[in-house]
Write a structure and sequence with these properties.
alpha/beta
Length: about 250
């Protein structure tokens, strides 16, 4: 039987980030992707002009119908937008015992805010304790921890703090020197990388967390999944276009 997964996130109609980026990544791994849309956006790689949240009952209906049909163990979440949406997603993760890779999306690549005022507190209270892995970038890690990150040591300190909510945190280093920090329980691993001179970075966080999900579905360890996904995103950026990664570079 073909392996399957689910992304719960917002829709970027330009295809660079969100649901569409996730599905492209799943497909590149030959994994059948399903999707639950939490919000509609009007955006492109350079700006976001509007966001429309999806009714929570409709979100629940989407999840239930997918889970009725597909043998899904690992999922990922992206833009959830609001306190209400986080709460219903958390209940469904518990109900179906889903191993969830949480990409705590808060701000678009263009700098637009993608969440409401209650988002961060709800994320820490309801969703992070259920996460299998969380994959914040530098800015998201700062918002979740209230720590300013300027060095790798700051990343390490922050990852350990975030692991009070969950067992595994990966802080991606694309907004600094390129090195990711992986914290599993109290063990720290530095996943070295170099910054690439490219504008194809819209949706890299979505692509990374989706790749992590696929690697775990393919029975990789968390450490190997983190290394492989970093390389996958690096090549996607190098071979991207229209300011977005190309998830099909392996093809």
């Amino acid at each position: 039987m073909k392996k399957s997964t689910m992304t719960i996130a917002g829709l970027d109609p330009s295809g660079g980030a969100g649901i569409i980026a996730d599905l492209k990544t799943f497909n590149s791994y030959n994994i059948y992707g399903t999707s639950v849309i939490t919000a509609l956006t009007a955006q492109n790689p350079k700006k976001v002009t509007n966001i429309m949240a999806i009714d929570t009952n409709f979100i629940i209906e989407q999840i239930d119908l997918i889970m009725d049909e597909y043998p899904i163990e690992y999922i990922k979440t992206g833009m959830l937008y609001s306190d209400k949406i986080i709460k219903v997603i958390s209940k469904k993760i518990k109900e179906y015992n889903l191993k969830t890779i949480v990409d705590p999306v808060m701000v678009s690549e263009s700098g637009s805010n993608l969440v409401d005022k209650t988002y961060i507190d709800s994320m820490k209270k309801y969703l992070l304790p259920l996460a299998y892995i969380i994959t914040p970038n530098i800015n998201e890690a700062e918002k979740l921890s209230n720590i300013t990150i300027k060095t790798e040591e700051d990343m390490i300190t922050t990852s350990k703090l975030l692991n009070k909510y969950t067992n595994t945190t990966i802080i991606t280093g694309g907004h600094m020197q390129g090195t990711d920090i992986l914290c599993i329980d109290d063990e720290i691993y530095k996943i070295k990388g170099n910054l690439i001179k490219s504008n194809n970075t819209h949706g890299t966080g979505c692509t990374y967390s989706s790749s992590i999900t696929c690697e775990l579905i393919n029975n990789k360890t968390i450490h190997d999944a983190a290394i492989n996904s970093k390389n996958y995103v690096k090549e996607s950026i190098k071979q991207g276009y229209y300011n977005t990664p190309n998830q099909f570079w392996k093809k």
